[in-house]
Amino acid sequence: MASIGSTFMLHSGVSHGTGDAMVREITLRQVGGSIGATLPKEMAERLHLDAGDRVFAVETAEGILLTPYAPEVAKGLAIADDVAKRYRNALRELAQ
Hints:
The protein has helices at residues 41-46, 71-86, 88-95, and strands spanning 8-10, 28-31, 34-37, 55-59, 64-68. By secondary structure, it is of the alpha+beta class. The strands form two sheets. The chain has a three-stranded mixed sheet, with no helix packed on it.
């Protein structure tokens, strides 16, 4: 398996203090047409995550950030996506 150079950063909204982060290697596996990652039990427990919980996956300059799913955030992201599509040309002009 080739290294893809990405980092998973999981933020649960629970503060554990500086230097208290758990680091574990995670193997990616084929799951149907997608790729899945399995979190170690102790990490999931520490971050209060259970099977079936939803998270957002956000691409960052450092890698992939997994953060808890929040319906109000999902609604805001959907609105932002709609605005970006609707005003695509204006936003391109403003970006120059």
